[in-house]
Amino acid sequence: MTVAGLVAICYFAVAGGPEGTETLVRTAGPLYSVIGFIVMGLLWSVPMALMSAELTTCFPENGGYVLWVGAAFGPQMGEMAGWLQFVSSAVDLCLYPGLFVVYMEQMVNVDFASHPEAEWAMKFIFILSLLLLNLLGIESVGHGSLVFMSCLLTPFIFITCVALTGSISGTTVLGWPFAISAMLGTLPGSPDWSSFLMVLMWNMGSFESVSVCAGEVSNAASVFPRAIAITVGVVLANYILPILAFSGLDGRDAATRAGRQQQCAFNLKTGPLTPDDARGKCEASLLLCAIDRDDITVPP
């Protein structure tokens, strides 16, 4: 496996996209969110990444953290670590077929809740497709992850680059209005720091999970440290730059909910939309996918 493929796998294990920051922005505003990612990156992500890189070079075998825990505390604890991660992954991964259906609803403007057969068929196809990708081997997973990562980040890179051109003049090169003061704003009142911290840790953890495929990587001692180091930088940029860009484009931080990026894409792509504008919704959804249909409001 190449460094690029391993970076893509590690990226999806840790972040999986710029989405997930809405709670942070709504809780404390973009300034504290950016500071939080930088501090959490230094105090949490970098040590976890360094630990994962070092232990993977010591145990270049499939099993990763299960082998680490087993070597330190015995085989029973290693087995428990594996089962705990399995349960955690099962709870987490069951969300994604539902999210896939939500994406498709936004693209085709159809409520699949009224068509349960179609909804379950799409979920089954989604699971089967990823299962087949895994059965093809780790090389296929790496290549597939790289393709998915490119498709996912391309619209964010485009919008972020354009938006940040307005950070000086207040207007982007495409004429989009940009609120400079909102880019690093704060919210009044006392934030819920416990929720803020938990969401930060959730968004910046799991670097060790990629270690389970160490045995499939030739020259793991060289490839893994480079891949993990690159992933740390990609993950930080993946969160911080879109926060700055979308806060400047839409400064309503206190009202931020899941789907904020897509609503901005709706407005920037086609202007104000009506709820029945299927073509405009489809174009904007292709530009930027949302997280939760119930959290998306389209201006009248």
Please give a handful of descriptors for the protein shown:
300 residues; mainly alpha; 0% strand; disordered C terminus
The quaternary structure here is: single chain
Number of strands: 0
Tally of helical runs: 13
Name the average pLDDT.
79
Structure in words:
The protein is an all-alpha fold. It is 70% helix and 0% strand. It has helices at residues 3-14, 22-58, 65-73, 75-93, 95-108, 116-135, 138-164, 166-169, 180-183, 193-204, 220-249, 260-270, 278-287. The longest helix is centred in the N-terminal third of the chain and has 37 residues, at 22-58.
Question: Secondary-structure map with pairings?
Answer:
Elements (H helix, E strand, L loop, with lengths): L2 H12 L7 H37 L6 H9 L1 H19 L1 H14 L7 H20 L2 H27 L1 H4 L10 H4 L9 H12 L15 H30 L10 H11 L7 H10 L13
